[in-house]
Amino acid sequence: MTISWTDEQGHSRQLAWLSAAQQAAPQRVLAVDDRCTADAAYRELSQGTALLWQGDYHNARQLLQAITRRIARSAAKGARKPAAALAPTERFHRERLARAQRARLLGQLLLPCEPGYHIALRRAPDVQAACEAAYGPSPAVPFALSLRELLGVLGAWQWFLRGVEVPALGARIHPHYGVFAPVRSEYLDLLAAAALPAPPPQSAFDIGTGSGVIAALLARRGIPRIVATDLSPAALACARDNLTRLGVSAGVSVEEADLYPEGRADLVVCNPPWLPGRAASALDAAVYDPDSRMLRGFLDGLRAHLNPGGEGWLILSDLAEHLGLRSREELLGWISKAGLRVLGRSEIAPRHPRASAVDDPLHEARAAERTALWRLAAA
């Protein structure tokens, strides 16, 4: 894919297009530089025109921040009802729509790059290592990418270098780009504290392993044979990397699979996305589960993949219930329909900052949220 525009001399120009999120190349592009005001930029973006920046790199970042403020002001003016007047479900959908529209607009401020991930702008930073981790080898021709996406790549690179401290592991997990970081550690505390089935399980499945943190925790708890599955190539590579870093890779097999691997296990653990809804990006896929596909697939397949006397552990937040997206009765119905019974349930309150942020439009739901570990067995 390519983008095309006309320069100030009237010459037609073209660049290859690069997007880790596989976003389509913008159809209308206007070249701008430091002379472009935030108001003019916002007007062009709102009309569907992408802006190819040709000025100073730091000025481009400041412009992005200025446009973000204008988007927020416009959204506040255009809201027909204040958030407090809406039902929780309406509030949630309005916030999702606003975030999607903001991401679409901000994603249209573009940067020109040379092969080797060299940003062809004044005062541009060295982004080669971060970009190679996210995109792979550099294109061999000049190309353009989204500044907003690049900032996400650079942020993810810092997460990877520093790692995320996981108290339940007593170690750090290093998330790769496009793989959800285990920043909400309360669900891992539930997993670490839950009593293992008796006799002690000799095998376990970690369904949808992501960063590999659950498989690592199960290995640290002494389960000798673990199979961790995922469909995402980025997640599979990330899990293998973290399991090797933690010194537990010998007992864990990481396999590409849509939910279950072959065979049965004494313990099957799944932490599916907590909210039903369409995922708009790779990171979204760790939060949103279209039609609760993964949740229902885990429940429907669990009985056939448990050894006699085995248990399935479902880690799930009830945020969807507080937002009116799924009821507790619906979840219990799916469990019963899958031929399962509930052995027990433990829960924990969230500790992340948004749970106490009173200015968050979803504050009431977040404050009431609890994350639970459901212990399931064949009925």
TrEMBL record:
PROSITE patterns: N6_MTASE
Pfam family, one: MTS
Positions of the Methyltransferase small domain: 173-315
InterPro entries: DNA_methylase_N6_adenine_CS, N5-glutamine_MTase, SAM-dependent_MTases_sf, Small_mtfrase_dom
Keyword ATP-binding: no
Source domain of life: Bacteria
An example Gene Ontology biological process: methylation
GO molecular function, one term: nucleic acid binding
UniProt keyword annotations, A-Z: Methyltransferase, S-adenosyl-L-methionine, Transferase
SUPFAM superfamilies referenced in this protein's UniProt entry, alphabetically: S-adenosyl-L-methionine-dependent methyltransferases (SSF53335)
Protein name (Swiss-Prot/TrEMBL): Methyltransferase
Phylogenetic placement of the source organism: Bacteria, Pseudomonadati, Pseudomonadota, Betaproteobacteria, Rhodocyclales
